[in-house]
C-alpha cells in the first residue's frame, strides 16, 4: 500500500457543499453562528440583503467602502454595483460552494431579494497579519534581517521582491477538508526541472487530510520516506534562503498560516550549511562548515565510543589515560551504559524543559540545572567527571546543526549507538554504522539522491558541499538538480578585471 493511498484512507470525510444547493440554504445554515450577520439594508435606489461573518470582515471598509457607496450611488442591477464599489475583484455567483468558501474568507454576499439565486461577492477580509520581524531560529549576524510571517500573500511578496522576474511561477491549492488552507508551490519556470515541479505539485495536490495548520504537516506528507528519521526537505524562515534555492532550480512550498517554507529537493550536506556562510569570506565559511560536520560525527559517536571502549576494549586506551579513567570511575557503582544513559537522558530533559518554559526562565533552567545536576551527580558518585565532559561536549556539538529538524535527528541517533556499544562494542558500532549508511544511500528527496554529491559522485558539486569556494568558481548550478539552465553566468567573463590605470 502506497503512502498516499494510506493517507486517503485515513482522511476524515466532511460534508461537501452541493453546487446545485440554493444560496439561501447556505445562508440559513450560517445564521446559527453568532458571528454571522444577515440583514436587509435600505438604500435610496432599492433594498439589498447583506450576509457576512463580522469576525472575518473589516468593519471600517464595510461601512466606508460598501454601505456608504450603496446609499450614495444609484443602481438597479448587480453589474452597476461593480462600477462604483472598488474593493478588489467582485464576482457574480450562483454556485453555493463558491459562496460558502467566499463567506469563510471574508467576503460579503449581496442579494436584492433574500431568495435570489444570484448574488454579488465582495471581498472585504480583515487584515490581522503579524509584522515582518527578524529571524528567530536562523538568526545571522550579517545579512538580511527579514523572516516569513503567517500570511501567504506577504511571504510571496518577500520572495518576489528578491526575484523580480516573470518566470517565477506560483501554483495555489486549497488543502484540508476543514482548514481549507491555501498552499502555494513556487518555482522559476526557466530554471527548475519539470520533473521536480510535477512531482511536488502532484504530491501536494494528492494530500487528503482534514486540517493542514502548518507547513510541517505538508512536509511530513510529501516526504519520499516518512519512516526515516532524516528530514528530506529543508524548512526555513528566511526569504533570502528561499530566493537562493529558487535560483538554484529548487521548488518551494508555502502554506498560509505558517512562517516556514519547504525547499526541495535537498541533500544531506545542505543541512549542515548555514546560509550565513555566504555572507562571509569563503575561507571562514569553509572552516565553519568543516567544524559542523565534525561536530555531527562527535555528537553521534563520542558517548558510544566511551561505552564500548570501557566495556570491551580497554586495552586500546593509553595507560596514562586509562589510569585517569579508572580513578574517576573508582567510586561509580554502575556500568558505563547506565552511567551514559543517565547523563544523556538528563541532558534531554533539561533541553526539553528549557524549550517549553518561557524564554528567560528556560535559559535559567538550562544553565543552573546543568551546573547543579552535573556537579551533584559527580559528587554523589553516580557518574564520572570524564563522561560528564564527553556528554556535555556531545550535546553542544549537536546544537551546531543549522537546521533544527536535523539537530533532533542527530540527538536521536546517539541512543541506538549507545545500546549497540553495550551489546557488542566496536563491532556493533561498525555494523550499525553500515546499516545507517545503507539507509542514507536508499533515501531520496523528490526522487533525487539524498547523499549527492558523494553518491552518485559529482565532483563539480563539491565546490559548495564540504567546503565553499569563491563565487567566481560557482558558475554552474548543482548537477543533481538537472536544471534547464545549468549555467549561472559566463565563467570567462567572471575573471578578475583590470584596474583602470592598468589598461593605460
TrEMBL record:
Entry's family note: Belongs to the GerABKA family.
Entry protein name: Spore germination protein
Keyword entries, A-Z: Membrane, Transmembrane, Transmembrane helix
Matching Pfam families: GerA
Protein's organism: Halalkalibacter oceani
Biological process (GO), any one: spore germination
Localisation per UniProt entry: Cell membrane; Membrane
GO cellular component, one term: plasma membrane
InterPro entries registered for this protein in UniProt: Spore_Ger, UPF0353/GerABKA_families
Magnesium found in the keyword field: no
Segments traversing the membrane: 362-380, 386-405, 417-441
Cross-referenced PANTHER family: LEUCINE ZIPPER PROTEIN 4, SPORE GERMINATION PROTEIN
Region of interest: Disordered: 477-504
Protein topology in the membrane: Multi-pass membrane protein
Record's keyword annotation contains Membrane: yes
Residues in coiled coil: none
Predominant location category: membrane
Superkingdom of the source species: Bacteria
Biased composition (Basic residues): 484-497
Amino acid at each position: 500500500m502506497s503512502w498516499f493511498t494510506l493517507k486517503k484512507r485515513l482522511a476524515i470525510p466532511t460534508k461537501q457543499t452541493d453546487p446545485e444547493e440554493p444560496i439561501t440554504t447556505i445562508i440559513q445554515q450560517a445564521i446559527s453562528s453568532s458571528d454571522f450577520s444577515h440583514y436587509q439594508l435600505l438604500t435610496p435606489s432599492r433594498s439589498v440583503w447583506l450576509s457576512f461573518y463580522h469576525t472575518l470582515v473589516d468593519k471600517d471598509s464595510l461601512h466606508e467602502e460598501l454601505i456608504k457607496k450603496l446609499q450614495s450611488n444609484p443602481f438597479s442591477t448587480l453589474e452597476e454595483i461593480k462600477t462604483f464599489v472598488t474593493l478588489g475583484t467582485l464576482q457574480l455567483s450562483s454556485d453555493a460552494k463558491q459562496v460558502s468558501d467566499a463567506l469563510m474568507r471574508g467576503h460579503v454576499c449581496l442579494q436584492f431579494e433574500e431568495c435570489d439565486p444570484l448574488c454579488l461577492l465582495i471581498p472585504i477580509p480583515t487584515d490581522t497579519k503579524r509584522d515582518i520581524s527578524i529571524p528567530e531560529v536562523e538568526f545571522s549576524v550579517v545579512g538580511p534581517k527579514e523572516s516569513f510571517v503567517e500570511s501567504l500573500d506577504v511571504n510571496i511578496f518577500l520572495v518576489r521582491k528578491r526575484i523580480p522576474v516573470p518566470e517565477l511561477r506560483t501554483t495555489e491549492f486549497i488543502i484540508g477538508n476543514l482548514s481549507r488552507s491555501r498552499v502555494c508551490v513556487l518555482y522559476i519556470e526557466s530554471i527548475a526541472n519539470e520533473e521536480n515541479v510535477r512531482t511536488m505539485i502532484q504530491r501536494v495536490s494528492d494530500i487528503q487530510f482534514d486540517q493542514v495548520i502548518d507547513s510541517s504537516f505538508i512536509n511530513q506528507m510529501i516526504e519520499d520516506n516518512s519512516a526515516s528519521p532524516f528530514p528530506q526537505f529543508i524548512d526555513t524562515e528566511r526569504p533570502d534562503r528561499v530566493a537562493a534555492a529558487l535560483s538554484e532550480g529548487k521548488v518551494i512550498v508555502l502554506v498560509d498560516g505558517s512562517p516556514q517554507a519547504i525547499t526541495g529537493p535537498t541533500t544531506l550536506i545542505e543541512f549542515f550549511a548555514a546560509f550565513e556562510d555566504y555572507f562571509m569570506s569563503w575561507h571562514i565559511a569553509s572552516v565553519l562548515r568543516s567544524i559542523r560536520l565534525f561536530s555531527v560525527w562527535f555528537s553521534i559517536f563520542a558517548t558510544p565510543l566511551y561505552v564500548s571502549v570501557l566495556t570491551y576494549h580497554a586495552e586500546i586506551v593509553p595507560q596514562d589515560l586509562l589510569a585517569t579513567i579508572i580513578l574517576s570511575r573508582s567510586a561509580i557503582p554502575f556500568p558505563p551504559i547506565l552511567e551514559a544513559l543517565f547523563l544523556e537522558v538528563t541532558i534531554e530533559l533539561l533541553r526539553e524543559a528549557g524549550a517549553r518554559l518561557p524564554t528567560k526562565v528556560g535559559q535559567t533552567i538550562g544553565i543552573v540545572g546543568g551546573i547543579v545536576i552535573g556537579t551533584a551527580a559527580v559528587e554523589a558518585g553516580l557518574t564520572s567527571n570524564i563522561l560528564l565532559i564527553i556528554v556535555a561536549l556531545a550535546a553542544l556539538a549537536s546544537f551546531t546543526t543549522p537546521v533544527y529538524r536535523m539537530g533532533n535527528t542527530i540527538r536521536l541517533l546517539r541512543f541506538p549507538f549507545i545500546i549497540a556499544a553495550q551489546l557488542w562494542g566496536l563491532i556493533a558500532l561498525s555494523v550499525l554504522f553500515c546499516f545507517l549508511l545503507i539507509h542514507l544511500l536508499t533515501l531520496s528527496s523528490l526522487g533525487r539522491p539524498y547523499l549527492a554529491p558523494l553518491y552518485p559522485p559529482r565532483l563539480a558539486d563539491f565546490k559548495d558541499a564540504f567546503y565553499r569556494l569563491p563565487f567566481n568558481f560557482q558558475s554552474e548550478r548543482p548537477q543533481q538538480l538537472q536544471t534547464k539552465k545549468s549555467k549561472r553566468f559566463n565563467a570567462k567573463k567572471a575573471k578578475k578585471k583590470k584596474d583602470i590605470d592598468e589598461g593605460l
